Amino acid sequence: MKILMRTLVVAIGQAATSMERIAVLFILSRTLSQYDYGTYQQVWLVYQLVLPLFTLGLPASILYFIPKTEPEQHKTFVFQTVVLLEVVGVIFAAFTFLSAPLFARQFNNPALVPLIRIFSIYPLFSLPPKLVNMLLIAREQPIYSTVFSILYSVLLIIFNTAPSLLGLPLEYTLYGANLGSIIFAAGMLIFLLRTYRGQTFRWDFKLLKSQVIYSGLLGLSSVLGMISSQLNRVIVSSSFSTETYAVYTNGAFEIPFIGLITGSLMTVLIPEFTKRLGNQESLNSVWGLWNNATLKTAIFLFPIATSLFTFAPEFMSTLFSPKYEASAPIFRIYLLLVFLRITQYGSLLQAMGKTRLIFTTSAVSLLLNLILSIVFIPLFGITGPAWANVVTVYVWALIYLVMLCRLTKVSFSAIMPWRSLGKLLFLALIAGILANLVHLLPLSYFPLLVVGLLIYGVVYLLLLILTHTLEVSTVIHLVYQLRDQVREMLQPLVLKIRAAGRE
Fold first, then answer.
1. Is the pTM value of this prediction over 0.90?
2. 62 near 81, Cβ under 8 Å?
3. Average pLDDT, whole number, for the chain?
4. Which end of the chain offers a freer environment for a tag, N or C, measured as fewer CB atoms within 10 Å?
5. Residue 396: closest CA among 356, 362, 428, 426
6. Which domain holds residue 74?
């Protein structure tokens, strides 16, 4: 339970980062024209495309090296990483500045050239703060990591949205983002200097070499994953107008807390799976735990997908304003991916050391995504790339399941509880059909969304209880457990705050 709670705390911090992006988009989609909003999204697309190529897993290397290095080496390692990130940031900035005309030509938007160049200094100050968050996690301080993520997210929201709220041109929004990153980078430096006060700093080139090699290998997978995840946006941005891209990109986002739910449960199971590899009898017991975790995840994710699918136009209008109601069909297509998020298919293969197999599958999936996108655009228009992405992910998940069956010598039914999942999906669909009747009421989009989701939630919960899928006592027991664990984890932080107040 403690491991689960630590994972949840970290995941909440990660969700805060995701919510920051949604909050920014919530405001900018209302204050900017579709053209300016689409242009802003294209600038961010450039940043997201180039980021993994240059960072190559450097921030994540903290999680690997800090536990393995002696405490007296921590300052050396951390500050070497800061220097590396700043060098990377300079190269990143120079590349984006010089390549701005190329991106503008590819996306058919000349306005991108000066905007990309304004934003090119952003990596210089945005990359190092990523290090602090990883450092806090590596030092087993999940509460502080979460507080850091939340503060960083709030600061970015303020500086990213204030210019547009004041009616200033788009370039000032990017200036605001730059200023916010500079302020936080300065705060990060002060934090590091105070944390490692009294420790000596000496260059350790052997450690530096190990870090670069490790980060490079890790980064190759990140680059591949980035290309795959952003491919559809690149294709849409290159094939359609900037305004159309604005509509598409709003529909093509994933709900932030989906990864929180799945990741929290799988973090507990993966170590158990790794320990029991090689012992078929012991491994079979893990599949029982795996199925149980998958079902519990599905209980939460299936209703999220079906309820939002039912009220997609209202959700898009509420989140991004009514002028983006056209994003609803794209959003519905991407919601189909939620049904696959009930487990992490590649995690077990990673635990088995099949990293080459994962890389090969990812490369093939990327190629399939590209081919399907090209084929589907003439057939389905703007929804073509979305369908291509969904089909690719389903094929990818099927391949992983087949691999797991062969490697662990178990059947499909042992890995996935298909019958129970089918029952949950049926209940979620029934709740969606009944909640859809709310559309008969003469309500505007926001009241209709609120009433519809409330009715959906009540109906779904009643169906779970009536079919004995979920026991009331189990829910109550879990709530009390979570409450006690949160209190236990927060107690050290509360005591420190009280002590600081007395001083």
1. no
2. yes
3. 80
4. C
5. 362
6. 60-99+117-203
